[in-house]
Amino acid sequence: MRATLEYIKQKFDEYNHQMFEGKLKPLPFKLSNAKSFLGAVFFQRKRNTDGSWHYDGFVLKISTVLDLPEEVVEDTIIHEMIHYYIMSNQMQDTAPHGKLFTAKMQEINRKYNRNLSVVHRTTKEEQESDKRVRQHIVCVSRLKTGKCGVTVATKSRLLELWHAMPRFPQIAELKWMITTDPYFNRFRKATKPGIYIVPSEELEPHLKDAKELIKQRIAMRDCFVVYK
């Protein structure tokens, strides 16, 4: 399922009374197309007159990119409510998922038979639910071991990555491609050199409509051209 604003509000109210004694104040809810998180609480950190800090301006965002089991969506909302509980009470944890967060998470898991965790590992089925058509700049690597690697580049770092990727000693050859295949939505866009190892038999069908990207020197500048 993909959450709606009405669903998030309903679950927030339900779990606020059940798990937080109804003490969490209402806050704005927003849906997100973010791929880097399932849920997040955004806030402002403001300085007090005595020089200390406090948290304010909270917004709870839930990503709707992936089609997730309802239990995972529920756990994501509760997970973010724990963050909100800690920050709205102006408590300082030892880390983003530190002692205060862990203690509250374990209490909720124990009392309400939940499966909250610090990080949700998305399944292959969940990854494949992202069907958005988007342009991807992909470096396909063939390693000396025979394995295949994929790097989906951030457009603003393309030139930097173009020059950095061949320096990996394990790479036998590489090719840069342009594609809109939704398969590549699952990979986080790289700002630094790195390789995701993928089975060649899984990768090849998703490259059949890809176009090769080449770099040319035009008017004293590096330019990228799609080879058809």
Strand order of the largest sheet: 7-5-4-6-8-9
User: What is the distance, rounded to the nearest whole angstrom, between the alpha carbons of the first and last residues?
Assistant: 39 Å
* Range of helix content: 25-40%
Report mean pLDDT, rounded to a whole number: 92
Computed CA radius of gyration, to the nearest angstrom:
22 Å
Describe this structure in words.
The structure is a single chain. This protein is α+β, with helices and mostly antiparallel strands. The protein contains six helices and nine strands, in the order H-E-E-E-H-H-H-E-E-H-E-E-H-E-E. The strands form two sheets. Strands 7-5-4-6-8-9 form a six-stranded antiparallel β-sheet. It has a three-stranded mixed β-sheet with strand order 1-3-2. The longest helix has 19 residues. The mean pLDDT is 92.
